[in-house]
């Protein structure tokens, strides 16, 4: 497009960024990012949300964080991209931090946020905490599950019972078990 003198708009740039994310083409995505900085698209939230999603899908969440922190405004798509990025990398502290910040800034979990977590991120975190017997982090994930009403899902209940049992907290394991029967 550029070679032919065609100026890309926010839709074409966002489509290229989406393709970069799907194909895990971080190098090309960074080139597009550099191009955005030299255009009038620099302040377009639609474009920057596509950029955040691309970085998250390319497992370059630290790059996404830099972009996120510089955004003058954010929407639910911006927040969801960061939650996806951190949870995909198993960075549960940052995932929890973003979910809490999201809530404090008035953004509610929506179906996209929930689906990101439900697709196994929460479950992976609980399983990891069980293996290393990291009770404190496991309780934080459990709290997140309760606040998100995801604690009632069978797989999550099973993972919570396993976590508490392996961490020798049979009382909590029993509570989760009894709640799962209700």
From TrEMBL:
GO terms for biological process: RNA modification. It comes from Dendrobium chrysotoxum. PANTHER family: PENTATRICOPEPTIDE REPEAT-CONTAINING PROTEIN (PTHR47926). InterPro entries: PPR_At4g14850-like_plant, PPR_rpt, TPR-like_helical_dom_sf. It comes from the Eukaryota. PPR repeats lie at residues 44-74, 75-109. The lineage of its organism: Eukaryota, Viridiplantae, Streptophyta, Embryophyta, Tracheophyta. This is Pentatricopeptide repeat-containing protein. One of its GO terms (molecular function) is RNA binding. Keywords: Repeat. It holds the Pfam family PPR_2.
């Amino acid at each position: 497009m550029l070679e032919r003198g065609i100026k890309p708009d926010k839709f074409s740039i966002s489509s290229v960024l989406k393709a970069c994310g799907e194909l895990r083409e971080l190098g090309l995505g960074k080139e597009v990012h550099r191009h955005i900085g030299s255009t009038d698209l620099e302040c377009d939230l639609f474009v920057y949300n596509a950029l955040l999603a691309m970085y998250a899908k390319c497992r370059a969440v630290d790059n996404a964080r830099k972009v996120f922190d510089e955004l003058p405004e954010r929407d639910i798509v911006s927040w969801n991209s960061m939650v996806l990025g951190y949870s995909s990398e198993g960075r549960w502290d940052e995932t929890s931090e973003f979910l809490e910040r999201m809530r404090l800034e008035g953004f509610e979990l929506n179906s996209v946020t929930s689906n990101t977590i439900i697709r196994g991120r929460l479950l992976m975190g609980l399983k990891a905490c069980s293996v290393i017997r990291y009770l404190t982090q496991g309780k934080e994930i459990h709290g997140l599950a309760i606040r998100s009403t995801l604690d009632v899902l069978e797989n999550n209940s099973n993972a919570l019972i396993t976590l508490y049992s392996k961490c020798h907290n049979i009382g909590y394991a029993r509570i989760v078990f009894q709640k799962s029967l209700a």
